[in-house]
Amino acid sequence: MTATPPRLEVQNLTRVYDGKTVVDDVSLTIGAGQVTCLLGPSGCGKSTTLRMIAGVDMQDRGRILVDGALVCDTVFRVPPERRSIGLMFQDFALFPHLSVAENIAFGLPRRDGARMARVDELLERVALAGFGAKYPHELSGGEQQRVALARALAPRPRILLMDEPFSGLDERLRDGIRDDTLALLKEEGTAVLLVTHEPHEAMRMADEIALMRAGRIVQQGAPYNLYNAPVDRAAAAFFSDVNILEGRVQGALTQTPFGEFLTPGLADGTEVEIVIRPQHLKIDFDRAGKGPLPTAAEGTPARAEVARARFMGRESLVEFRLCHDGRMIRATVPAVFLPRPGTPMWLMLRRDRCFVFPKVA
Ligand SMILES: Nc1ncnc2c1ncn2[C@@H]1O[C@H](COP(=O)(O)OP(=O)(O)OP(=O)(O)O)[C@@H](O)[C@H]1O
């Protein structure tokens, strides 16, 4: 018995522009009904990867397969319109002179008797029943997005490529639209590759995230794993604000203002960075210069003074200056707590939530 091949398989995709490698040996697979987010900062090569898969740009190296069949290598190339790959871009690119129904029907064969039935079905599914005769300029941004989604899905593509499909929308509407879009994509069973530079969006949408930096995929996996087991400091910092404690390993330990820290597996003298997210600090009150007792889970408390506290709605962001060496540490705490600058307090690290990485030059 042979295993079912992935819906989309990209092998060692590489693209060089003007002598610069902008996509560097990218490999990934996506199964039917799975959403993978290609996440990374601006200019890291996400859109170029998408364009090669769509067939509007040609790789210098690597192969693309759909359901196990070769679609493109550096010699052979199936044209874009015969790849069963749908596209959806940030600007939706609706045809202004066509009605909503005509936009959605655009990719369906004219002789297809079920053409209008499919249009009506999709209009219903994107909650736009009755909008078929309207024109794009008569719709809100969110409605246009839903038409673009319906148009992309109408021919039942095996794969849908989405490039920042929510970035033109009002921030307050985005989460609802993301959830509705995801529900429809799952119903249709399409394999989706979605490009975004927003970690929040990737975590909300993705079954898998491929984190990209300078043309390469540096980490790939479920959102939970990327957030909780980042491969390096930059991967940790991409998902949230972080504090960094620097130190040098001596006998598998590193000295910090929070006491000795276990840093096993690293040679003596290695410079390390201990990374901690602001929500993983614990804060305690100062009792006449005394703080809580050290524990195995939280180490030694460090005394600090509130430098600044900002109310953020659900939480407060408090910046502390450590008494030990004056360095600044940020902590987030429930918003009921908004201490005044100058207040002495004690900080502890949740050691199980810290990441230790050798320092990168
Ligand atoms: N046709 C081109 N010719 C030359 N350089 C290009 C071309 N297209 C893209 N690049 C360069 O390739 C790099 C990657 O661009 P790409 O658009 O893939 O990045 P991105 O991660 O999608 O960024 P963004 O999120 O800003 O769209 C950039 O440095 C860009 O300037």
From TrEMBL:
<keyword id="KW-1278">Translocase</keyword>
<keyword id="KW-0408">Iron</keyword>
<dbReference type="InterPro" id="IPR050093">
    <property type="entry name" value="ABC_SmlMolc_Importer"/>
</dbReference>
<dbReference type="InterPro" id="IPR027417">
    <property type="entry name" value="P-loop_NTPase"/>
</dbReference>
<dbReference type="InterPro" id="IPR017871">
    <property type="entry name" value="ABC_transporter-like_CS"/>
</dbReference>
<keyword id="KW-1003">Cell membrane</keyword>
<dbReference type="Pfam" id="PF00005">
    <property type="entry name" value="ABC_tran"/>
</dbReference>
<keyword id="KW-0406">Ion transport</keyword>
<dbReference type="Pfam" id="PF08402">
    <property type="entry name" value="TOBE_2"/>
</dbReference>
<keyword id="KW-0410">Iron transport</keyword>
<keyword id="KW-0067">ATP-binding</keyword>
<keyword id="KW-0813">Transport</keyword>
<keyword id="KW-0547">Nucleotide-binding</keyword>
<keyword id="KW-0997">Cell inner membrane</keyword>
<dbReference type="InterPro" id="IPR003593">
    <property type="entry name" value="AAA+_ATPase"/>
</dbReference>
<feature type="domain" description="ABC transporter">
    <location>
        <begin position="8"/>
        <end position="239"/>
    </location>
</feature>
<dbReference type="GO" id="GO:0005524">
    <property type="term" value="F:ATP binding"/>
</dbReference>
<dbReference type="InterPro" id="IPR015853">
    <property type="entry name" value="ABC_transpr_FbpC"/>
</dbReference>
<protein>
    <submittedName>
        <fullName>ABC transporter ATP-binding protein</fullName>
    </submittedName>
</protein>
<dbReference type="InterPro" id="IPR013611">
    <property type="entry name" value="Transp-assoc_OB_typ2"/>
</dbReference>
<dbReference type="InterPro" id="IPR003439">
    <property type="entry name" value="ABC_transporter-like_ATP-bd"/>
</dbReference>
<dbReference type="InterPro" id="IPR008995">
    <property type="entry name" value="Mo/tungstate-bd_C_term_dom"/>
</dbReference>
<keyword id="KW-0472">Membrane</keyword>
